[in-house]
Amino acid sequence: MKTINYIKIFKTPFLVFLIMLTSACELEEVAPFLDKTVYENPQTAQASAKGIYAGLTSYNAKERGIFVINGFSGLFITGKNGQRISNPNNANLFSLNPNYDADSEAMWSGYYSVISRCNGAIQYTTIGQDPIFDNVAGHAYFLRAYSYFQLVRLWGDIPLWTELPSSTNLHKAKSSAKDIYSQIISDANEAANLMNNTLGEGYPMMFAANMLLAKVYMTLATNSSLHDGSKSESEYWQMAYDEAIKVKNSGNYSLHSNYQDLFTLSGENSSESIFEYQLSEQASNSQLGRNYTPWKYKVGMHFGWLSVHADVYDDHVSTYPTDPRIEGTYLHYYQRADNGADVKVYPSTGRNSFRASHPYLFKFAEKDKSHAAQYNSQNYIVYRYADLLLMLAEISNELNKDAEAMGYIEEVLGRVGLTPQIAYYGGQSSFRDAVMKEYRYELLGEGEDSHNNRRRGYTYFLNNIILPHNNNPNFSSQYDLTLNTDEARIMTLPVPLGEVSTNDLIDD
Question: 489 with 97: CB under 8 angstroms?
Answer without folding.
Answer: yes
